[in-house]
Amino acid sequence: MNHSEKPIWWLIILLAIIKFILPFWLQSPVFELQRDEFLYYQQGQHLALGYLENPPLLSYLGSISSQLGGTVFWIKCWPSLFGSLTVIFTCLITAQLGGKFHAQILGGLSVMTGAFLRVHSLFQPNMLDIFFWTVSIYYLIRFLRSQQNFHLYAFTISLTLGFWSKYSVVFIISALLLALLISMYKNIFLQKRIYIATIVFFILIIPNIYWQYIHNWPLIHHMEELRETQLLYINPKDFLIDQLLMNLPALFVWIGGLIWLFKNKAFRFIAFTYLIVIILLILGSGKGYYSLGIYPVLFAAGAVAWQQWTRKIKWLYPVFILIVLFMSWVILPMALAIWEPAKLAVFYKKHNIKHKWEDQKEHELPQDFGDMLGWKEMATKTELFFNTLPDSVKKDLVIYCRNYGQAGSLKFYSKNEQFRNKVICDNGSFLLWIPNELQFKHLIFIGHKLPDKDDEVFQHFEKIILVDSVTNIYSRQLGDKLFFFQQADDKAARLAREDLNVQKKIFSR
Q1: Which of the residues 43, 90, 266, 507 has an alpha carbon 20 to 30 A from that of 53?
Q2: In terms of Cα–Cα distance, which of 232, 217, 236 is closest to 279?
Q3: CB count, 10 Å around CB of 385?
Q4: CA distance 236 to 224
């Protein structure tokens, strides 16, 4: 194996601090939490061994944020923190592969740009997924170098925590196993300790597997729903184009790293790991960003590759760093919501940048940005209307939201416990939190349109009033309406309970 270099810790820590600060410094305060962040934060208020959408590790972090005050800062500090930790481990991998001062800068900088800017600004499982993929590869390299049990079990724990973060860790596990089997390290599978580590892994994930079992494998239901609503439109060509565009400022770094890995027998298994991950994701109709976890090691390898290739023309290396910085600045308005919506829309229009959302229509902002607007407006209007109602009405009222973003934002923005406790939703994990003894005479409904005629529960009210709607033209929630359903008959609540019972039975044995 190549000779490793010592990590330059003052430099690594400096890069990590900058990485932590970037999202807070760059993103416009006009933008709110993103739709999914409201869900994950609310999961933290209902701690469990699993959820309908994802494993629970992120939710436990959300619970800590809640204990610290539940502000946007304490929610957003997690993606910034794990972004910083990813920078640290990328630099450590760079050093392991033989990267010196400039290589450690280039490797670290590459994880601070492109798609990583956005991922590390969002409280979503992706930031944990990327981190644990990176850590596991670091410890695998250390184990293959040293054959020390510590590094083997650190590798195992990394994959275990990755599983508790996002189920897509199975892609990196599968890819590493296949890549090692065709590498110079295939003999490690003859070692007893490899199987002991495997047993440890399975023991540590049993609680979540058991939760999946007793809830009738919601992961399968969730994947089927994703295929029907989102993954349906993904094709291999778009996926591969995403691989080039996601990390455009550091494109030459990771491509150089991939070439270098293929040429280096000791680390060729990493190159094959990358190819297998890409193939598995294409076969599984994965989104482009699902592969982000494999890129930090390619950045590290690329940084070392360019260090070696420019050994006789050292002035080129600072130029590479400047290229990454310059390109990062160029693509910044596409990666982060750095300006208010109107200014961003003008920028995109001027440069003829199109944004296709999941509805397959073009919009003025990226979908993620549109999903960070309109929530506070909707929550404020709903609570203001709720406060106008007499106590006799509030007592027999529920607030029903069509999607988890609406429900999560109402709970997040309100300080009124009575109001928060009235909010229910049957979308995602919110379904499991609806009380079985649900009762109501009145209902505040939040959705894009009135329920269809075949939605029988809503046909049992005496009166319906349109109260207000979301008016932010850049919001994905534009046009979401607030209706007040009054005076339900005796059948409404019974029908609602029966319908909810049917939905809940899907996720129970």
Answers
A1: 90
A2: 236
A3: 16
A4: 19
Sign of CA dihedral 266, 175, 92, 143: negative
> What does the pLDDT look like over 431-486, one tens digit per residue?
999 999 999 999 999 999 999 888 899 999 999 999 999 999 999 999 999 999 99
Residue where the block lists tokens 């990583």 = 116
Q: Report how far residue 330's alpha carbon sits from residue 138's, in angstroms, rounded to the nearest whole number.
A: 31
Instruction: Quickly count: other Cβ atoms within 10 Å of residue 509's Cβ.
Output: 8
Task: Give the pLDDT score at 347.
Answer: 95
Tens of pLDDT along 336-368? 999 999 999 999 999 999 888 888 889 999 999
DSSP assignment of 187-246 equals GGGG-HHHHHHHHHHHHHHHHHHHHHHHTT-HHHHHHHHHHHHTGGG--HHHHHHHHHHT
Interatomic CA distance for residues 408 and 416, integer angstroms: 14
- In whole angstroms, what is the distance from residue 241 CA to residue 251 CA? 12
pLDDT for 1 = 61
Strand partners, 481: 447, 469
Q: What is the pLDDT of residue 13?
A: 97
Half-sphere exposure of 90 (CA within 13 A, CB side): 38
* CA 335 and chain centroid, separation: 15
Q: Per residue in 77-103, pLDDT tens?
A: 999 999 999 999 999 999 999 999 999
Predicted local distance difference test score (pLDDT) of residue 508: 87
Residue 227 has pLDDT above 70, yes or no: no
217: left (phi over 0), alpha (psi -120 to 50) or beta: left
- CB-based burial of residue 393 (10 Å sphere; 0-12 exposed, 13-18 middle, 19+ buried)? middle
Phi, psi of 398 (to 5 degrees): -125, 155
Q: What SS3 class is residue 359? A: coil
Q: What is the DSSP pairing of strand 442-447 with strand 481-488?
A: antiparallel
How many CB atoms are closer than 10 A to CB 427? Answer: 16
| Chain-centre distance for alpha carbon 134 | 16
CA atoms of 49 and 45, how far apart (whole Å): 13
Distance CA 344, CA 53 (A): 31
Helix extents (H) in 68-168: 72-96, 101-110, 115-119, 125-146, 149-163
Beta bridge partners of residue 483, listed in sequence order: 445, 466
Structure-token match 């040293």, residue found: 146
Residue 188: is its pLDDT beyond 90? yes
